[in-house]
TrEMBL record:
Lineage summary: Bacteria, Bacillati, Actinomycetota, Actinomycetes, Streptosporangiales
Coiled-coil residues: none
GO function term, MF aspect, one: oxidoreductase activity
Keywords: Oxidoreductase
Protein's UniProt name: NADP-dependent 3-hydroxy acid dehydrogenase YdfG
Family: Belongs to the short-chain dehydrogenases/reductases (SDR) family.
SUPFAM superfamilies with a match to the protein in the record: NAD(P)-binding Rossmann-fold domains
Gene3D superfamilies from the UniProt entry: NAD(P)-binding Rossmann-like Domain
Amino acid sequence: MNTPKVVVITGASEGVGAALVSAYRELGYAVVANARSIAPSTDPMVRTVAGDIACPAVRANAIGEAVSAFGRVDTLVNHAGVFVAKPFTEYTEDDYARVTGVNLRGFFEISQRAIDVMLTHGGGHLVTVTASRDNGLPSALASLTRGGLDAVTRSLAAEYASQDIRVNAVTPAHAPGDGDVVDAIVHLETAELVTGVVVRVDGGR
């Protein structure tokens, strides 16, 4: 019996995240879906891990559930993210901790865990949903965190290309259609020679 590929998706309870769960199931993947609040799935090939990805235990549980339930991690979709719109001088220490805890540390540590597992199975794919804020909202803190993810995408793609781990990102507009973002991620998933790219999904904005 063939073992299905396995994807871990953060921020998977609604919108783009929930649509990604369905899209990956259509591709034949087993799914581990994480969100701060998420109900158990009736699909035996979908496991859910509730909790904030900023919490170290939740990051460990998401990857651990994939390995214990399905034996591997082939793809990690970093979709969880926090956006706080404030004038730059009004950001508080709590704002900084909240945003960086998800957008940077959450990304960093779950990606480390996922790549570590991918290396034992001969490759994989890491794809991150970053954010484009070209709509006039004050977004310095989002730019600091999410902009850095574009750069680390290229860096990790170069670092792991020889080990068959691809690393890509999708940058949506502030309010894109869910399907457009999902389509871009599915395209990257199936484009086996594409790595180190940041795909903008913003209608030319």
